[in-house]
Write the structure tokens for this entry.
Amino acid sequence: MSDVLIAAMLFHILWVAMLYVLLTVMRAPKIWGIGAKADGTNPFAKIEPRASANLSNQFEWPVLFYAICTLLIARPDFYQPIYLWFAWLFVVGRIIHSIVQIFTTNIRLRGLIFTINFVAVMCMWLVLALDFFG
């Protein structure tokens, strides 16, 4: 049980680490001059702020995902298989959210994907609340 939740958490952590690498590469032309265009400009200038914003987003709503996963790992008596589905829906949704936020300006699509992430974590908390108080 706990290993499957830990796997989802680790996958998200790997995604965040990859975003750090991506952001470092995007900033390299500006900071170190590596990869700059012939005129000295940064080829990633348009998407670098979006990548930076997305990386910050990885430390907002996901906190509640980590909190419930940690709680479920500590209290395996509350675990149900539905948590695994919601956990992976959340992680896959975070990846899609990153791609949309960094590489497009489609706010509606980004909002829809965020809503899926939001609902997945809220459902995890709802199932726990129903088990705990029910």
Summary: The radius of gyration is 18 Å. The longest helix spans residues 2-31.
